[in-house]
Design goal:
It comes from Heracleum sosnowskyi. This is Replication protein A 70 kDa DNA-binding subunit B/D first OB fold domain-containing protein. It is a single chain. This protein has about 375 residues and is mostly beta strands. The protein has 5 helices and 20 strands. A 7-stranded mixed β-sheet has the order 5-6-3-2-1-4-7. The longest helix is centred in the middle third of the chain and has 13 residues. The radius of gyration is 22 Å and the shape is globular.
């Protein structure tokens, strides 16, 4: 029997209706009126087997029909929906895409068991804490961030009436990735849930938080991550970036003052061109399996470290961002031994999560050299 073919969110385009995608519901939320009443319509954040996410909107006229079939965290087969571009004025988009999907009374939703399809529990598109300032002046996109919660034992939930006399709750804390500190403010229901979570469970320390779909703002000229309806949090989540950050913390990296800073630069080629790329921390860590500090701490600065050449001649899929006249690798999706790669591996090959605003995933071969720039 032939295997049934399913679509991926990465292939979405307008003009087609009979889509069939297997996806996990990462989150479900509603908007509220100015009077605080929830809308009947609701929203979903979906993740498919190719690690591609999409925002789904369920209009009010089909909400009662479809909502009983949906529970956050479960996997479903979604059939028959339309693809629609966001309107320019639509704010707080939970992923960096210009399209969303819309369900209708023709949409079919079928529950799938965990052993029927392999889909991650969650997917993220992390933004470096040092780069959040550029997002603080816009309201179009939300973002995902990760960091160590500082002084978590001192966190306290605040209750007060705002200037309109309405009761509110708030909890404030600071997160760090070892080089940048960022303030976080959770409000109302999310603040309550967060306070309950850190009080009721005995978490391993340090507490590492992933904030999904956070709103980046400014308060008193400092960057602050706050919440909207789509925002969620994950404490000490089973994710490779959490493990990486914990390893850095356990090695006392977060307390090490680095006397010198370097840019690790690579020269990469694909079928069309050759460019120079600067590896940021996460990308460099994934390429070499260790932090730059571990590699550069005990070397003679007049001698090129041979260990840096180990990635030459290998193929990577990188997420590149254009910064001035340079390209910066912000993440690496996977690494393949180019000499041993065959077409038999193609179906099992991991795929990029998604294309991002101002950033794009590309395949490249590091055949042309690695060098360090102070």
């Amino acid at each position: 029997m032939a295997t049934q073919k399913y679509d991926s969110f990465k292939d979405l385009r307008k003009g087609k209706y009979d889509w069939k995608v297997q996806a996990r519901v990462m989150n479900l939320w509603r908007g509220y009126t100015k009077k605080g009443e929830p809308f009947k319509a609701f929203n979903l954040l979906l993740l498919d087997s190719k690690r591609c996410r999409i925002h789904a909107f369920v209009p009010g006229h089909v909400a009662d029909l479809l909502e009983p079939s949906i529970e956050a965290g479960n996997i479903y087969l979604f059939k028959n929906f339309t693809v629609k571009e966001y309107k320019e004025e639509e704010k707080f988009r939970c992923i960096l895409k210009d399209i969303q999907i819309i369900f209708s009374n023709e949409t079919k939703i079928s529950r799938l068991e965990e052993n029927e399809v392999c889909i991650d529990k969650a997917g993220f598109d992390f933004y470096d804490l040092a780069d959040l300032k550029e997002l603080s002046t816009q309201t179009t996109y939300l973002t995902d961030v990760i960091g160590v919660i500082q002084d978590h034992d001192e966190l306290r939930l605040a209750r007060f009436n705002n200037r309109l006399g309405q009761p509110q709750t708030q909890i404030k804390f600071t997160i760090t990735d070892g080089k940048t500190n960022v303030n976080v403010t959770f409000w109302d229901q999310l603040a309550e849930h967060f306070d309950e979570a850190i009080r009721e469970e005995d978490f391993e320390t340090p507490l590492i938080i992933i904030i999904g779909c956070g709103r980046v703002t400014k308060w008193k000229e400092e960057v602050d991550v706050s919440n909207v309806g789509a925002t969620s949090f994950y404490i000490n989540y089973n994710h490779h970036c959490v493990s990486l950050l914990r390893a850095m913390y356990d090695s006392d990296f977060l307390n090490i003052p680095l006397p010198k800073r370097y840019n690790l630069c690579i020269r990469a080629t694909d079928d069309t061109a050759e460019i120079n790329i600067v590896l940021e921390n996460v990308a460099g860590q994934k390429c070499y399996g260790k932090h730059a500090y571990e590699m550069l701490d005990k070397i003679d600065e007049n001698v090129f470290p041979e260990g840096l050449k180990t990635i030459e001649g290998k193929e990577y899929t990188m997420k590149l961002a254009k910064k001035g006249n340079s390209y910066v690798a912000k993440d690496v999706s996977h690494v393949i031994d180019f000499e041993n790669f065959t077409t038999e591996n193609e179906d099992a090959q991991p795929r990029p999560i998604q294309e991002s605003y101002g950033e794009i995933w590309v395949n490249c071969n590091l055949s042309s050299g690695v060098y360090v720039r102070k």
